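Here is a protein:
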Amino acid sequence: MKNELIKKIDKIHTTSLGMKRIKTNLNIEASGVDYCKNILLNEDSIVYKNGKNYYLKYNNILFTINSFSYTIITAHII
């Protein structure tokens, strides 16, 4: 599952509203897309798919990514 998402890493993006949501939820200043991609490439991150979404988990962070459009929907601290 993770390798499938890594192969499509260049397609991962978000909307302007999604970017605001990610920055607010994770309390970061950096690009939410770059932050997500760095986590995806981390060897300790986990990717699983449930329905139409991929879930990218690393430590206490969870990203939700649409599996068709590769749009980051949201991110949360869990």
Q: What stands out?
A: DSSP finds three helices and four strands in the chain. The chain has one domain: 2-77. The chain has a mean pLDDT of 97. Residues 2-77 form one domain.
